[in-house]
Amino acid sequence: MKKILRHRRHPIAHFLVLGIALLAIGFGYTLLSPSNAAVATNARSQAVEEGRQIFLKGCSSCHGLNAEGSTKAPTLLGVGAAAVDFQVGTGRMPMADAGVQAMRKKPVYNAEETAALAAYVASLSPGPAIPNAAQLNYERDGNIAQGGQLFRTNCAMCHNYAGQGGALTQGKYAPTLMGVEVKHMYEAMLTGPQSMPVFGDRALTPEQKLSIIKFLKGIDAEKGQGGFSLGKVGPVTEGLVGWVLGLGLLIGVAVWLGAKSK
User: Fold this and answer.
1) Ramachandran angles phi, psi of 167, nearest 5°
2) What is the pLDDT of residues 128-159, one digit of tens each?
3) Which CATH superfamily, name and number, covers 133-221?
């Protein structure tokens, strides 16, 4: 002890004591404060509980108390957070009425409520997750030429070659892809809502999905070159207009000439 006290006036003694004190404080803070992982887990648990309450009030009457499904609606086990984010975020769910197909409309739940619902459904069983911003950078990772080829091969038969949508069988339809959020287009390919097939990462890689989105966004940003666009649905509409107007004009001229001849 005397030996230690003998060196208490050493020039570095104060710095040594200060360093030991800072280390002790840091070590104590690490032990006593919650870790980032614990905070994240707690926040996730709160979101899941909030989502469960929303589900019980707004979804369980059709999908069942445990999301097991019923005669009114399918099970949600295994659909993942991406499917919930797409269906609820686009206003398709909850359905206003039990029709042939859920229509896009103004969302019932806000972004926070939608995220909570998605977290709850994702907690029930594994499924596709909601893509983050880094996964949706189509400008960086997409190829517009490849996207056009992939879209014409996999999507144009339903959504029209220009993404304007089209009719399907039994009263169903493929909706327009113009003005749709990037996240929702990606989620639709990932989960296959309603009549749409599922394009998992084995069918279309993430880069290929972004290429299709880049192609569609390119079409969406195109400006008309003049005249009537006729919905950009191709030669069928243009031919119909030509026949109706052309034949109508010819019939009108024939009637006029007949009247003049009398």
Assistant:
1) -80, 145
2) 999 999 999 999 999 999 999 999 999 999 99
3) Cytochrome c-like domain (1.10.760.10)
